[in-house]
Structures are given as C-alpha cells and as structure tokens.
Design a protein that fits this description.
Structural class: alpha+beta
Radius of gyration: 14 Å
Order of helices and strands: EHEEEEHE
Oligomer: single chain
Strand order of the largest sheet: 2-5-1-6
Helix content: 25-40%
Length: about 100
C-alpha cells in the first residue's frame, strides 16, 4: 500500500443541515465524503442524543479527506453554515492509504 499525506475534516451538524453541508463540500470540489448518522455528544448547545424518532433532532458527522488546498475551500464553504446552524468542524493531519505496491 502507498501512503499519501492529507488532511481530515470532521464536521458535526444537526440532520436538517446535512444537505446544505454536502452541497458546500461538493461546491468546494472535494472528491469524496462520508456521513455517519445519529451522532450523539455534548457541546455548546448541551447534550445532543440520537434518539429522536423522526431523526430531525439528531446530529450527523461528515468526514472529508483531501489535500490542503481542497480542505481550505471546504472550510471557507462550511464556515457560514456553522456560524448560522451551530456545530463543530475539526481539521487534522492524516495519511490516506492508496492501493498499489
């Protein structure tokens, strides 16, 4: 396996804002993302639990792995959404494994 340095972006928002965040990620030309649904936790808005029957009150996590220039565009695109909707965005250095020798 070949290793490639990248950055990992983790964004947690409430379920109703998922499509807006995904649109922003697409507009930033990120080549992929992963969604983890029904994320629970505690933060500035208190405890958020993934036990709402409708799902509208639960949180989701979106993960993006990309090179720094793409991550910069993603951050610019999602910052206004997070200011309005709340949530959290974390960025860390990571290594992506690529198929190959």
């Amino acid at each position: 396996m070949t290793r490639e340095p990248c950055q990992r972006v983790e964004i947690v928002v409430d379920q109703p804002h998922l499509s807006v965040v995904i649109d922003a990620i697409r507009d930033a030309s990120a080549d992929g993302w992963t969604v983890l649904r029904e994320v629970s936790g505690s933060g500035g808005r208190g405890e958020q639990w993934a036990d709402d029957l409708s799902g509208s009150g639960s949180n989701v996590m979106i993960i993006v792995a990309a090179e720094r220039t793409v991550v910069d565009r993603v951050l610019q695109a999602v910052a206004p959404i997070l200011r309005e909707a709340g949530g959290i965005c974390l960025v860390s250095d990571a290594v992506r494994l690529l198929p190959g020798p």
